[in-house]
Design a protein that fits this description.
Layout (H helix, E strand, L loop, with lengths): L1 E3 L4 H22 L3 E4 L14 E9 L3 E7 L1 H12 L8 H19 L9 E7 L10 E8 L4 E8 L1 H30 L17 E4 L7 H5 L17 E5 L2 E11 L2 E9 L3 H5 L2
Helix pairs in contact: 1-3, 2-3
């Protein structure tokens, strides 16, 4: 992976997770495995045509935008894999196929178990113009088992890079809290660790109304107005999760126009969750 003026590990962690999700969808759709490869000092072949651009907008616990750029030749090759047809001049059909791929990859990325960025969604759309902010760029090269290669550039805007930096700091603080709490569990409250020092550190909790497993076909067929039935009855309690662990259940309420939770059950002593 090549980085220009990036924020180091924050950007790499995000982009690697996104591209790996995208390539899993590409592999499932095309029927051949794809993976990121390291090509030291190499760059994609010059392409005189305008690249294919797709803008992705994030909203929820993670906000901002990033844009993908793929050379026309590589985009046509990928589209031919998706459409199961010979590679021809890149047109509207190929463009829509590529957009569906990126949309599905983004959905997979957002819904991955243990998603470290919390709950968020991504909207994908074709972008007619180049990204205005080109200071934070990452480039990857993907290859299949048939020797096909495609270089993809990702341009992140300042909002997203800031959000990733904030998340990294919060994650680091949370890890420090976990270390301190585990130390307390070993040494007791009378030990050297003072919990008062970390009581104000913010932890991300998530409300879960239910879940559902979807096949790749069902994900690709999702459109505006589609209804996804969850595994939870209306009268069943909503779950409150901390770091993927259910810590409480209760009733969903509305407070000043925002969703909230009235806790009716604490599933286990919170100390047992934090001391894991």
């Amino acid at each position: 992976m090549t980085t220009e003026n990036g924020n180091g590990r924050n950007d790499h962690s995000f982009s690697n997770a996104f591209f790996n999700a995208l390539l899993r969808v590409l592999a499932d759709t095309s029927g051949s495995p794809w993976q990121l490869i390291d090509v030291p000092g190499a760059d994609s072949s010059p392409d005189e045509l305008e690249p294919v651009r797709i803008k992705l907008t994030l909203f929820g616990n993670l906000r901002g935008e990033f844009q993908l750029e793929i050379g026309r030749t590589a985009a046509a090759m990928i589209a031919s894999k998706l459409l199961q047809s010979p590679a021809i001049e890149f047109g509207e059909e190929q463009s829509e196929a590529l957009l569906r791929l990126v949309t599905s990859g983004a959905s997979t990325f957002c819904s991955e178990p243990g998603q470290e960025y919390g709950t968020f969604n991504i909207n994908a759309s074709l972008a007619p113009e180049a990204a205005l902010d080109r200071t934070n760029m990452l480039k990857v090269t993907a290859a299949d088992d048939g020797g096909n290669r495609a270089s993809i550039s990702m341009y992140m805007d300042s909002v997203l890079t800031h959000e990733l930096a904030v998340h990294s700091k919060a994650r680091s603080a949370t890890d420090d809290v976990g270390t301190l709490i585990k130390a307390v569990g070993r040494e007791g409250i009378a030990g050297q660790v003072n919990l008062d020092l970390v009581m104000d550190v913010e932890l991300n909790v998530t409300l879960r109304f239910g879940k559902r497993q979807l096949t790749l076909r069902e994900v690709l067929e999702l459109t505006s107005g589609s209804v996804v039935e969850l595994d939870r009855q209306v009268e069943e309690p909503v779950e409150l999760l901390l770091d993927g662990i259910v810590i409480a259940r209760g009733e969903a309420v509305v407070i000043d126009g925002n969703y909230g939770l009235r806790v009716t059950e604490v599933s286990q002593p919170l100390s047992s969750v934090l001391l894991r």
